[in-house]
Amino acid sequence: MAYTDPKTKIRYPEPKEWLAADRSAQYVADYKPFNFVDGEGVRCSVYVSGCLFNCPGCYNKAAQNFHYGQPYTQELEDQIMEDLSQSYVQGLTLLGGEPFLNTQVCLKLVHRLRKEFGHTKDIWSWSGYTWDEILQDSPDKLELLHNLDILVDGRFELAKKDLTLQFRGSSNQRIIDVPKSLAAGKVVIWDKLVH
Fold first, then answer.
1. Is residue 21 predicted with pLDDT exceeding 70?
2. Full domain range(s) for residue 142
């Protein structure tokens, strides 16, 4: 059973306790094309619906509901791919909610992106899960991880909130270079990290 830290009120699941197949309604809370805040360069950002971490101070509390927003559709996927095809767009960002509890939606997107654009577009994701938690979890979570370029990992911790951090809300979160980390067998921090 998930453990709730009495001090921070943050939830910690057992490996494979929270599965996308059991939780996800395959809803999208929001889609924001052509933004500059959800990673490096111009991004197309998909905010999936549903998260169980319940971090106090969450900036997107409405998206914790698995039925918030609209169902994921082929039309939306086609629009995202069309937007990604613009030469000035660097890549796709997956946020939420919790992308790793919405792997049905996220894997459709990343597989199609890789098929159409290869590695000319990068994929970033934020997750409340840590790197180590994902490595111990379900095959779908591992598959999503292996398709990412950058993972910003860890729950948002209100006591460690720092608005000056690059692409993070709290100082416990890390910006991880996924391919380098998988190759090294340990976490390798993104080499463009400012602070």
1. yes
2. 26-184
